[in-house]
Amino acid sequence: MLALRFCLSLVSADWVDETHRRLSEPSLRFGPQDEGAIGPHPLNGILEYGPFGKHRLAGVPNPIRIAFVGQKSMIARLHKLLRELDGRHSPKDRKAYLPDYPGFSHAFETTLAYAGDAVSIELPDSLDHELEAAAAPHRVLSEALTGSIASLRNQRHAFDIVLVGLDEKWASGFSNTGDEDFDLHDFLKGYGASAGIPIQVIRSGSANNPIQTLIGS
């Protein structure tokens, strides 16, 4: 993804030299079946035309019911984030690129809702000490998280997506510095796909910034 963003940042239609050419910014399609609903900017396109296929994607619920997994303090942040995502926000940086955000329901034409305490899984504070003492903290953390997600299977009818809150204090478990190729974000996404449970991973830094959460940076 980083390499793709770097390549797409080299936008012009001119030749760089005899063997290389800079690619122009690709057009993205938005909104309903309208040939004119295209543009290069993902955020402006959504605000102007709405999300792609909005009249064809009957499977998108309204509201989108959100389940939580995280420690008590992180779940409190996720509740706050959920409320803020439907509010209006103006960017504090990158103002030339980021438009004013009108709120989730206005931008995406559906709403977000907490799915209830029955599908809010609170991880114990003792997990912090287990990670500190573990020789392989990424295994301890991934097992704790996937176990919590698995416990939601019997309540699958009650939610649409799970927000998994990761506190930066768990950073030792986000990847493995040894020979094992491991990335916690990718692992959780893969687990969710195999279990039929959509997952969105929210790190504590982005949980405090709704615009950063939306743009994924």
Question: Can you walk through the features of this model?
Answer:
The chain is α/β, with parallel strands linked by helices and 217 residues long. It folds into 2 domains: 1-58, no CATH class; 60-215, Response regulator (Rossmann fold, 3-Layer(aba) Sandwich). It is 36% helix and 14% strand. It contains 9 helices and 7 strands. It has helices at residues 2-8, 42-49, 72-85, 104-108, 126-133, 137-150, 184-195, 204-207, 210-215; strands spanning 28-29, 38-39, 64-71, 112-114, 120-123, 161-166, 199-203. A hairpin with an 8-residue loop joins strand 1 (28-29) and strand 2. The longest helix is centred in the middle third of the chain and has 14 residues, at 72-85. The chain is globular and about 55 Å long. Residues 1-15 have low confidence and may be disordered.
Q: What ranges have pLDDT less than 50 throughout 5 or more consecutive residues?
A: 1-15
Elements, N to C (H/E): HEEHEHHEEHHEHEHH
| Class based on secondary structure composition and strand pairing | alpha/beta
CATH superfamily caption of the largest domain: Response regulator
Regarding CATH, which class of the largest domain?
Alpha Beta
The dominant shape is globular
Our count of domains comes out at 2
Tell me what the CATH architecture of the largest domain is.
3-Layer(aba) Sandwich
CATH topology category name of the largest domain: Rossmann fold
Average pLDDT figure: 84
**Total number of helices:** 9
- Helix amount, in percent? 25-40%
Beta content comes to: 5-15%
| Biggest pleated-sheet summary | 5 strands, parallel
What's the count of strands? 7
